[in-house]
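User: Okay, second chain of the day. Same drill as before: sequence in, structure tokens out.
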Amino acid sequence: MIDESNPAGRLHKILSQAKAQPDNKTVKFAWSKTLGVEEDDIVVTKSVIELYSLSQEIQSLIKMNENLNHDLYLSSFHRIDRVFFPLNLGTTWQGAKQHLTEEALTRLQFCAQELSGFYSEESLTKEDLADIIKKTDELYDSLYNSTLPTVLRLTLLEEVQRIRNAISLYQIKGAKGLKEALQGAIGAVVANQEELKKAKNENDEVITKLGTLLDKMDSFASKALKIHKIIKAPISFLIEKFSSNNEEQDSELEVASET
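Assistant: Same drill. Structure tokens below.
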């Protein structure tokens, strides 16, 4: 059984599904159905670019192991990458599909087996992802209709959209993508802690939803990647804590300047 908890395993699963798409359909249709994304030029193109990035990541991980025969493991990646580019969305799938040979998929399977020795993720359930999607959509709507200052509101909406993108690309990027989106959102919260604290009374529900979503994502990402949680307390507490720390630092600076 192929280990699908690492980048090579994920790519093998996706390409195996892509190979099953009808020859007479368009490239856009084939990728849309394989990846479960909207049959839109921009959406499909972005997803295929992420697949190419995944291919590059696998090759880099294999090359990190100097004890491996790199030619043996990587010799078919030139074929795999030609499935992605050139990307002619309107042409028939048969042309790109011909590069998905059994040899290429078998070598990719070997890569998955090799990576399983040091790289693995615990897959999130459909229920987990559905819960994140629900909380993300609710937060986006609440932020959009909130009375937060315009710049702060747009900043947080942008971070929530990044989380949405990470969720849509989960089957490609795995929990690593969720963690990256989480880190960006936490950074935005920390950078805007003073504004959030001032707006807390009038927008308590929005900030609570923000904290709930980030805490949930942190739990999922840490569980999947087998790492410690980034957030050690609710976001509302973090805002107060950081603000208190800043006040203490300001007081210390004032005392130091007086002496």
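The chain is about 75% helix and 0% strand.

User: Thanks, on to the next one.
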